[in-house]
Specification:
By secondary structure, the protein is mainly beta. Helix content is 9%, strand content 50%. It has two domains: 163 residues, Vitelline Membrane Outer Layer Protein I, subunit A (Aligned Prism), CATH 2.100.10.30; 144 residues, Aligned Prism (Vitelline Membrane Outer Layer Protein I, subunit A). A hairpin with a 3-residue loop joins strand 13 and strand 14. The two termini are 41 Å apart.
Amino acid sequence: MNNAFVRTIGLLAVFMGMSLGGFAQQPTPTTIAGGQGGIQFADTEIPSGVRVLEVHIFSGDLIDAVQMLYTVPDGRVLAGPRYGGPGGQQNILRLDSDEYIVGLSGRYGNYIDSLQIRTNKRTSALFGGRGGSQRYSIDIPGGNQAVGFVGRAGEYLDAIGLTFVPLMMRVAGQTAIAGSRGGAAFADLDIPLGARVSEVRVRSGNVVDSIQAVYTLSDGRLVEGPIHGGRGGSRSVFYLDPDEYITGFSGRSGDYIDSLTIQTNKRTSQAFGGRGGNKAFNVNVPAGTRAVGFAGRSGEYLDAIGLTYAAGSNTNIDNQQRRNRRSRADR
């Protein structure tokens, strides 16, 4: 069994033990460039909330190996698998907090002779040697960011490509939460860029069992956010208009969230849940922002509830997407 595979499994075991409270990312691989030797590899199991912090390139006359380092929401740094052999001089490309990888280029023959990394802000130095009979250039689609590598490797890096996921919007913060101290904490902080909340799914009976946001992406696809709470109760769905967004919650709580009403910029929903609860609550996002997800505590039921929020309208997100496209066109 190859060492890269063993290291990948070890890293995934760490990742799978995390509760990042976001979307399950399923990276898409690009095509690969290079030779036919080596063993296939692909970073296709990357948890939500992870950001590429550094790219390590080990090289001499050829590219010996590549490796990514990640940061996770709790601040820890985790090393991804090293693909390739043990040789080469280490070079480190460190990314800014608002920087992400958009492409690769270089030359190859039987192996990857040289490698240059493109980000949304710059182009790296050229790593490796001057050989290679063919030039390659790999770009990921606009509105996405690279989160890993795909290719072939053995003693050297034989072939290379990227795996990518949608860009995530910058969540500005979260409200205070209302309810009890039971359950485990959660917060939706990792939301695809351009997504809007188009449905809220609530399961409830005498109390609110669970809540879930469903998002419409800029290309029209629906993506389900995580379910916060248990599987009991009857299911209800609150649908939002294209120009509608959540601004707050109100209801009653005791040991759990007993009842919940959703406020938007246009209306107030029906009340979900029962008639119990000894405390009334009212949670609102700051003026000029809109809710993009939920925060709180949950277990078998919804124990406490609040909101995560971002800048006021989809216009801000659309402008960011246009800036990303212009940046790519200028390179």
